[in-house]
Structure formats: C-alpha cells, structure tokens
Amino acid sequence: MKNINEIDIDEFAKLDIHTICLVDVREYYEFTEMRVPGAKLLPLGEVPENISSFPLDTPVYLICATGNRSGIAG
Q1: What is the pLDDT of residues 49-58, one digit of tens each?
Q2: Residues 50-64, buried b or exposed e (16+ Cβ, 10 A)?
C-alpha cells in the first residue's frame, strides 16, 4: 500500500462506500457479532498472504474495533 493515513469516524462516515474497498481485519467471531455494511473480512493474520488481492485502482480502508490491528495491517 502506498499511502497510509488514519482517519476518524467522522471522516469515515463521509466516504462513499461504493467507491472504496473496505477490509475488516478483525477475527471471524468479531465480524459475525457486528459488521460494517460493505466490509469484507480478512483477519489480520491473513493480510500478508492476501495483500496482492487488494485493488490497485481503488482506495483501501482497513478497519478493526480500536484501530490497533488496522494500523498493524497497514
């Protein structure tokens, strides 16, 4: 990933979910308990082997419960 920027929930709320790739890096059980509509699950431990599947022409946003795992994944 080229540019890594952290955004807050207010900035996130302004995004058009149809123009981004939203990746949830939490674990499966967390994702099934609560999810953001449009997010795709890719647990943190699976990010390195799947990073090539991220689109090159679309902004990718990584999310988790607190920002820790998405920061590590980025």
Answers
A1: 998 999 899 9
A2: eeeeeeeeeebbbbb
